[in-house]
Amino acid sequence: MVEVTYYCPYCGAVTSVERDATLEDASVTREPLADREYAATTDDVEAADGIEFVCLGDVEGDAVSPDRNSPRQRATDRTGGPRPDREGCGRTFYLNYRQSPPPTVGPRQ
């Protein structure tokens, strides 16, 4: 098992999960992909097609705000990248594992 970190595509807050090191990530998305089964971070994440995260940020961490004096600020906007100094926004996002063969993109025919 390894601890892997991801950042929320809405606010950039960083979160982590422990999982098998052999799993391959495909993408992090705001919406679930069709025909995928997602596990909660507290479930068997290796048995699913991906993980459903609720953005809580670094709930156990000791990250501080950039000025190191004021309390951590709540993230409310998309910052364009990881923000380990921010609390989570509470929104749901999805980690998708790589599949063989890859999922079909676009409308089904």
From TrEMBL:
Q: Where is the composition biased (Pro residues)?
A: 100-109
Region labeled Disordered — which residues? 60-109
The DUF7969 domain extends over 3-97
Q: Which InterPro entries match?
A: DUF7969 (IPR058275)
> What domain of life does the UniProt record list for this protein's source?
Archaea
Task: List the protein's name.
Answer: DUF7969 domain-containing protein
Organism, by scientific name, is Halorhabdus tiamatea SARL4B
